[in-house]
């Protein structure tokens, strides 16, 4: 106990990081914390609006299509998207791990698969948005209201506004993640991190990528499950 | 003799590195399976609820939110490695996030009260002015 206390005192005296991480990684953590509040604010305002409405569309009725299949399949397509993103998170951890062992080829392999996963996810999202927009759902209008005399009626306008804003903001994060991962992959292939002596850059983009996955876990629950 | 020792040392290091590699990779895949299974349970629950209406919405939502927090924990703790960082860093990240407790409670209560208030007024209007 006393050893821990004395080590901590030494740590706060300067010269070493009391957090035992580099400046860059610590700043990435702080950035992600602020980003968590941004997404948190979005999702909580969505929740507030939804709770204040007397009627809200059932996600099982809204998200019931998958490409190439002409049947009602609630949640199937979005489950695939979730699987792709979890999988790309796994390949990212494997890339970070290979970076610790300074195995350049393995880092490149796992990072490439992560980028592929990101692109696949964005393609799925593009399909989903296209399908919804073609069905008449926009940020100000949708037809997911209660069925009156066998006819669909307009649903709450906020539904489309929140859906496109939040999934769009998340998709924007995925897109920038893909771009940053690609830049890091180019540097891996060029041997930049071998010359630098460490693969910490892969860890930093890894943190960002896992955060994007984390946000999707909450978006998935709030929009597709609840 | 010296060279022999060096070879043994190198072999030991390689062994250790291979061992560390295996256990870390095994842990990564374990977390992957946890995340996948939790997601499949969520989807199964959503499907069962969609077709049978069971369990009740409130219970279903509590289960969904708990499972979401389980997934969030594994992503942050294992994939983002926060669990293995020093305590100072963990606390610096987690304590500010406690604000979310107030944030969620206050805003969701507010949203709910708007609906309750409006629905109450609608009922009152219907009571005082019957349709002609």
Write structural notes for this entry.
- The complex is a heterodimer of chains A (226) and B (132).
- Chain A has eight helices and no strands.
- Chain A is an all-alpha fold.
- Chain A has a single domain, classed as Four Helix Bundle (Hemerythrin (Met), subunit A), CATH 1.20.120.
- In chain A, helix 4 packs antiparallel against helix 5.
- The relative contact order of chain A is 0.14.
- The longest helix of chain B has 51 residues.
- Chain B is flat.
- Chains A and B meet through helix 2, helix 4 and helix 8 of A and helix 1, helix 2, helix 3 and helix 4 of B.
The count of strands of chain A amounts to 0
Distance between the termini of chain B: 109 Å
Uncertain residue ranges of chain A: none
Q: What's the rounded overall pLDDT mean of chain B?
A: 84
Helix content bin of chain A: over 70%
As a percent range, the share of strand residues of chain A is under 5%
* The CATH H-level homologous superfamily of chain A: Cytochrome c oxidase, subunit III, four-helix bundle
Q: What would you call the structural class of chain A?
A: mainly alpha
Class by SSE composition of chain B? mainly alpha
Q: Determine the oligomeric state from the structure.
A: heterodimer
Subcellular location (chain A): Cell membrane
InterPro entries (chain A): Cyt_c/ubiquinol_Oxase_su3, Cyt_c_oxidase-like_su3, Cyt_c_oxidase_su3-like_sf, Cyt_c_oxidase_su3_a-hlx
GO molecular function (chain A): cytochrome-c oxidase activity
Main location (chain A): membrane
List keywords for this structure.
heterodimer, A: 226 residues, mainly alpha, Four Helix Bundle (Hemerythrin (Met), subunit A), 8 helices, 0% strand, elongated, B: 132 residues, 2 domains, 4 helices, 87% helix
């Amino acid at each position: 106990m006393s050893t821990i206390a004395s080590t901590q005192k030494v740590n706060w005296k300067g010269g070493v990081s009391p957090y035992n991480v580099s400046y860059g990684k610590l700043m990435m953590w702080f950035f992600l914390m602020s980003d968590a509040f941004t997404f948190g604010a979005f999702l909580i305002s969505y929740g507030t609006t939804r709770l204040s409405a007397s009627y809200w569309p059932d996600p099982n009725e809204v998200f019931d299509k998958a490409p190439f299949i002409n049947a009602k399949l609630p949640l199937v397509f979005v489950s695939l998207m979730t699987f792709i993103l979890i999988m790309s998170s796994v390949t990212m951890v494997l890339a970070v791990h290979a970076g610790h062992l300074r195995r350049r080829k393995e880092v490149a392999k796992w990072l490439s698969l992560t980028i592929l996963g990101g692109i696949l996810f964005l393609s799925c999202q593009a399909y989903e948005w296209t399908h919804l927009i073609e069905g008449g759902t926009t940020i100000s209008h949708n037809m997911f209201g209660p069925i009156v005399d066998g006819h669909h009626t307009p649903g709450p306008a906020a539904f489309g506004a929140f859906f496109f804003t939040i999934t769009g903001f998340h998709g924007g994060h995925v897109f920038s993640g893909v771009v940053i991962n690609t830049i890091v992959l180019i540097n891996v292939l060029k041997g930049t991190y071998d010359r630098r002596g460490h693969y910490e850059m892969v860890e930093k983009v890894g943190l960002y990528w896992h955060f994007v996955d984390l946000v999707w876990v909450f978006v998935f629950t709030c929009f597709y499950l609840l | 003799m010296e060279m022999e020792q060096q070879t043994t040392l190198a072999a030991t290091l390689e062994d250790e590195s291979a061992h560390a590699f295996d256990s870390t990779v095994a842990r990564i895949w374990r977390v992957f399976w946890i995340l996948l299974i939790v997601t499949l349970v969520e989807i199964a629950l959503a499907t069962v609820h969609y077709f049978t209406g069971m369990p009740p919405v409130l219970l279903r939502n509590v289960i969904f939110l708990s499972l979401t927090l389980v997934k969030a924990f594994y992503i942050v703790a294992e994939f983002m490695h926060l669990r293995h960082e020093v305590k100072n860093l963990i606390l610096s990240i987690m304590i500010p996030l406690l604000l979310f407790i107030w944030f969620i409670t206050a805003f969701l209560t507010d949203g709910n009260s708007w609906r309750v208030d409006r629905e109450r007024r609608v009922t009152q209007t219907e009571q005082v002015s019957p349709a002609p």
